[in-house]
Amino acid sequence: MSSCRLAVVSRSSCFAAAHLSGLSHTRRSFSLTTAISFSPTNRPLLKASGRSFVTTSRNLDRGPLFEKAKTMDPKLYTKSAAPSSAKWPAPSPSASILVISPTNKVLLLKRVKTASSFASAHVFPGGNVDEFHDGVTAKDEHLDNIVYRNAAIRETFEETGILLSKTSVEVSDEVRDKGRKNVYNRQITFGDWVKNHGGVPDTDSLIPFTRWITPPPAKKRFTTQMYLYFLPVSSANSFSEAPSKIHTPTPEGEQEKEHTSAEWEYPLTWLSKAQSGEIMLYPPQFYLLNLLSPFFNDANKDYTTQRKGLGEFLDKVPTSSGEYDSLDGKFKPKVSNTHQIAWKDKVISPSVMFAPGQLYKEETVLSLESPGPELGAQKGNTRGGDAERVVVVEFERKTGPRGIKIVDRREVWRLWEEKEKKGAKI
């Protein structure tokens, strides 16, 4: 197998503290990116699976709040149960990247308070598909493809200045920032800008890592393809992970910027900061960081072995024992088959399993099993999420989610059964 080339941010021109920044205004020429050849062994070996998936449940899993009784119409778990697509806005295509540093830290951006979505939260780089730059994908197409990959790499460049390219691209600060602004304002396509500077977007190195679909009745809905991207371990000695200030150039000026900072931290550090209230993470970001946390940490410096372990986890099917409970039409446990779906193909549309006051006093329990109404209603659907875990979170109207935990689904049902035995009412 031939070696690959990735573009990574360089410190070679003494701008270590601002290597992600659009705030550096020096006219001195420097290398924005350094092309580094590396063997495929520096990243997880991820194999495409030809497995035929067991048909996943079309159970919307709305939990006791929805059922209200010990018996219910079985049709609620069939095609007729899904909300009509005419009632809810179709999800808009978007893409996001978990960028992994040479030492296996994860990049998060802090959103400003005035952002239209995820205000004040820490998020992965990403955004909406733009047909002008990325190509056309049907709004009901919930599959990884080149359009989503183009969008993921373009958005990362616009938001951070990081250009994920197969070949070296060396430009000045001024040229880079002007390029970000021109791409953002559609004055030039992202593909043309990269090509004009000798680069090639590294879409082949993006690794699919779940898809998330905003559940109805949200007014803004998205079908977001998540990716992993590994900066080469071999670049660790020349790569800075110091916090930096960034902004997205916009025609309106600085007041319209979307992000205020970018930082690299290990998954456990991000999770700890979220649980202490130091930062805000929404369930998708918290959940994905939780999945990465057993593999990426500072316990040892063998970064390649850490990545290999994650690669084995991502490739493994089944993803669990398959002994995790869901619900049938009679409010009784049944075995889910989402464990037959690899992580690259899992589709998650969170749904309320227990509302505040039912199982926990303030927290909501979110099921991650359903792929959402659009996919769940399809005849012979083979898509689904994660029936092994649930999210427990307290939602504050003004401040957003807090106190997020990832809990074993069986533990949740054990607690519910205990409440029932004590005479708890639905």
Automatic annotation (TrEMBL):
Keyword set, alphabetical order: Hydrolase, Magnesium, Manganese, Metal-binding
GO CC, any one term: mitochondrion
Record carries keyword Magnesium: yes
Pfam families: NUDIX
Disordered as annotated region, ranges: 239-259
Cofactor(s) required for function per UniProt: Mg(2+); Mn(2+)
One GO MF term attached to the UniProt entry: hydrolase activity, acting on acid anhydrides, in phosphorus-containing anhydrides
CDD domains attached to this UniProt entry: NUDIX_AcylCoAdiphos_Nudt19
Domain Nudix hydrolase: residue ranges: 90-287
Ranges in coiled-coil conformation: none
PANTHER family, per database record: ACYL-COENZYME A DIPHOSPHATASE NUDT19, TESTOSTERONE-REGULATED PROTEIN RP2
Protein name, per record: Nudix hydrolase domain-containing protein
Lineage of the species this protein comes from: Eukaryota, Fungi, Dikarya, Ascomycota, Pezizomycotina
